[in-house]
Design brief:
InterPro entries: GmrSD_C, GmrSD_N
Radius of gyration: 27 Å
Number of domains: 3
Largest sheet: 5 strands, mixed
Pfam families: GmrSD_C (PF07510), GmrSD_N (PF03235)
Helix content: 55-70%
Number of helices: 29
Strand order of the largest sheet: 1-7-3-4-2
Oligomer: single chain
Structural class: alpha/beta
Shape: globular
Strand content: 5-15%
Distance between the termini: 68 Å
Number of strands: 9
Length: 611
Amino acid sequence: MNKIVAHAENLRTLLNNKYTVQYYQREYNWQTKQIEELIEDLTNEFNEFYKDGDKQPDVRNYGDYFLGPIIITNDNAIIDGQQRLSSLTLLLIYLNNLQKQRPDLPKVNVDNLIYSEMYGQKTFCINVPEREACLASLFEKGDYDINNERSESVINLYNRYKDIERIFPDELKENALPVFIEWLIDNVCLVAIRTDSEQDAHKVFVTMNDRGLRLTPTEMLKGYLLSMIDINTTRDKANDLWKGKVVQLKEIEKDGDADFIKNWLRAQYAETIRERKKDSENKDFENIGSAFHKWVQENKHHIGLNHSKDFENFILNKFRMYADIYMRLKDYSRKFNKDYEYVFYNADREFTLQYQIILSAIRNDDTQDIIDKKIKMVSCFIDQFISIRVFNFKTVDYSSILYTVFNITKMIRNKNISELAEILKRYITDMNLTLDCIDGFYLNQFTKRYMLHILARMTYYIEEQSGINSNFANYVNREQKNPYDIEHIWADDYTQGNHQNDFFTEEEFRQFRNMFGGLLILPKDKNRSFQDMEYSKKVVKYDSENLLARTLNKNCYSNNPLFLRFMNETQLSFKPYEQFDKKALLERQSLYKEICKKIWDVNKIDLLANS
């Protein structure tokens, strides 16, 4: 092996280069969880140093943060590290777009760390040609049309950028923004291990990953717990159970064992969370996230681990039970199960905190029937909590509601069914937010990521209630060949219909066009072919689509007894429209509000409790 050199390099130095990725490892496959962890780690570390009033020069006195090693050749071929470098590039693109929105703040120039330009063409830090169009579009306008995209890496890049938009803390978008960017590029470091050849780089990679592996936190926790069990046969039984459950958890996802343990300990035992201000110390929530094996040892008495029997029970009873429930929840989040539908709905909206909240309500001595009820009740509550906030244009991003979720977790921890129902219902009614706000709900950049889900829920609800074999999962599946898209009932043409009589300006027309009541869902090919049609032609086509679309056509109200019965029983004001003008749109908006009030009815929590 030739000479190997390793240096700690900050992002300003590291990203001021262009890197190639070998064809056999070109996929960018980070998921939401990895981006959440990256943003949480970076922002938590930054907040260790930042205080109100700090300016960019103060970063000189801030500490560094180490993001691990990467392996590259001297001609800049990446052997290990492209996931992190690609994700950091996305973060810099997002931060740069934030700066464009804040001309009142000092600008930190990061363009050269994102791309270089020659002959009018941008070349990005990770130089993979198929990604360039997406990255260029994200850099220039913060968006990219992935409807016809076939590359898994490009789709993942786009989705992770949208994750960053959703996750990045609001408090860092203000005066702290330029300070954070300076800290990120100058104080966040990776160790770049450089080799002369690709062959040597692979040897280093194998050595680092296959030899002398450090124990994971899960393995260290197991070792500690087993060491406290006195009886050999019991210890062996506990060891076998632990190993079996860890294998099952890892089959769900790569770090499934650690993710479960963090959710479990936070749900059942965490009492404190770090304040987001200068000099605040990490508390239970953060310490469980970073080193749960140490946290358990330091808090063993709080957890109730005092004698050998306690450690036996912790593995053979509690670990087993909560791991099984967690795996059930993960299964419900991936495959639609009508009995546990709300878990799927919450997962579809990428609400990763639901597992912690649900686990917190479940007692170790609950019967299977009670466990099932609690899963249904709490997941229903979470669905209502998310929906009410979204309809009121309130974020449900991870960093923004972490404290709220932590308080909910403690509030419902180990409560019985009647107590749980009362707490959940009271929380919803005390939110000071209602569904009456739907009168003003519309499609914009914030609601775009939720609108398909909402319209799919409405479509599924009225079809199911009308005896139609409906499939919510199909409506929101973005991986299928012809996925559903949001359909505007009005074509994007101010000159059509009565729009010029209804609206003084084209701008006002466009605002109304995005109103909730003027939207449907259709398969992508139909959405594309219908988009320029006049309403009189569209409404004929709608008659062969989903029931929410069909209700605009008069044929829906003939020879459709189950739908008519549903309409009469619910007193929902469905009606057909030969013309769809401003008045019709506002009527439809009111109808949508009433449908949503039935879907997200707080009394459903009681129904589930008494089922």
